[in-house]
């Protein structure tokens, strides 16, 4: 029997923001494929006997596929996502036996178009705090039903996915703590050597930019050390962002307005990066972001979101846009300084091509 003949309302804004915050704490969006998640999707497809199965995470404006069988692509718009409806019922499996006659889904493009979607069943992945992050779902091009045993198995696989997410987050947190301890130890040793060599007072430059709250220019050294802690040949991306026409802002509205623009841009960058990323104000109106373990397409998604969010800020003293350049390399092979130069060149290409855009380094 169809369990979703009506569409539950969207979450209240405060609840939705809390859900998105919970999702981002897992640092799963735009990550590389992982066998454990592929296995869950394969089991869901096998148990339910469907040609397609997906593990999706519902982001602010999209649903992103961590693992999929029988479905091409990496994401779709959230506005046409069956899973967006499913996560509104965290305690239930949403089952749509025939989408072509369903009052909510019959006009969705994947139903009316060549995908010919008919059957859908999605079990929400519910985090310990009660937030539904996405679903483990199965799909068919023919109408069908889901047995109680299959529904129970789908729920179990969704719970297993959340357990994997918790283990993954704990592992990432441990790696981060180990890297921070190593950075701290290196700083102490370096400071001791400087004291012994100079035998004079030495002031250590603060690593945080007072205006934006991001790392300051010394963050480039932190980026280099962070990359060294990664497994050899792991991908990482360096992004350089620059405020367009910043001198015009200072000349027109004064330096106080320019400082406010820098503060807001820094705030949006801090909000837009993920838990394992590092962001710094490199100098003036230029910002630097390092994204470990991230492919180029995932990094572009992050930087594009930051670019759009900055332009949409209603409290800017005047319209502001940013341009960005990104470059990808492999840990242990490509030095961060080299990627910074490549990203900086891509940034200037973005400036030449009209600004308010993201360009990737050319091979």
Automatic annotation (TrEMBL):
Which reaction(s) does its UniProt entry say it catalyses? 2 GTP = 3',3'-c-di-GMP + 2 diphosphate
List the Pfam families: GAF, GGDEF
Q: What InterPro entries does its record include?
A: Diguanylate_Cyclase, GAF, GAF-like_dom_sf, GGDEF_dom, Nucleotide_cyclase, Rev_trsase/Diguanyl_cyclase
Q: Name one process (GO BP) from the record.
A: cell adhesion involved in single-species biofilm formation
- Name the needed cofactors: Mg(2+)
GO CC terms, sorted: plasma membrane
Gene3D superfamilies assigned: 3.30.450.40, 3.30.70.270
Q: Name one GO molecular function term.
A: diguanylate cyclase activity
Name the domain of life. Answer: Bacteria
* EC assignment: 2.7.7.65
Occurrences of domain GGDEF (ranges)? 234-363
Name the NCBIfam families on file: GGDEF
Which named protein is this? diguanylate cyclase
């Amino acid at each position: 029997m169809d369990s979703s003949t009506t569409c539950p309302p969207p979450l209240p804004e405060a609840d939705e923001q809390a859900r998105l915050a919970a999702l981002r704490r897992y640092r799963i969006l735009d990550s590389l494929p992982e066998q454990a998640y592929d296995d869950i999707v394969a089991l869901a497809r096998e148990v339910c006997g469907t040609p397609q199965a997906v593990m999706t995470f519902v982001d602010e404006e999209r649903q992103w596929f961590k693992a999929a069988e029988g479905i091409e692509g990496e994401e779709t718009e959230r506005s046409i996502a069956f899973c967006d409806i499913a996560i509104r019922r965290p305690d239930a499996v949403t089952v749509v036996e025939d989408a072509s006659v369903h009052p909510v889904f019959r006009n969705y493009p994947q139903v009316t178009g060549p995908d010919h979607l008919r059957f859908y069943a999605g079990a929400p992945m519910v985090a310990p705090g009660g937030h539904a992050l996405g679903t483990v779902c199965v799909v068919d091009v023919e109408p069908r039903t889901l047995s109680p045993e299959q529904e129970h198995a789908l729920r179990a696989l969704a719970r297993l996915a959340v357990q994997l997410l918790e283990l993954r987050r704990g592992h990432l947190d441990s790696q981060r703590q180990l890297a921070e301890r190593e950075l701290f130890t290196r700083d102490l040793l370096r400071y001791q050597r400087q004291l012994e060599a100079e035998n004079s007072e030495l002031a250590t430059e603060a690593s945080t930019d007072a205006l934006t709250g991001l790392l300051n220019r010394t963050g480039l050294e932190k980026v280099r050390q962070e990359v060294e802690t990664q497994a050899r040949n792991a991908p990482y991306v360096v992004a350089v962002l620059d405020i367009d026409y910043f001198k015009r802002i200072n000349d027109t509205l004064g330096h106080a307005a320019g400082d406010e623009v820098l503060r807001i841009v820094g705030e949006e960058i801090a909000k837009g990066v993920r838990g394992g990323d590092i962001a710094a104000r490199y100098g003036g109106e230029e910002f630097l972001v390092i994204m470990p373990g991230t492919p180029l397409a995932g990094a572009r998604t992050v930087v594009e979101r930051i670019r759009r969010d900055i332009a949409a800020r209603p409290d800017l003293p005047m319209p502001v846009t940013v341009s960005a350049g990104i470059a990808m390399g492999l840990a242990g092979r490509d030095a961060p300084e080299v990627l910074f130069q490549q990203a900086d060149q891509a940034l200037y290409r973005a400036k030449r091509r009209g600004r308010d855009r993201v360009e990737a380094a050319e091979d």
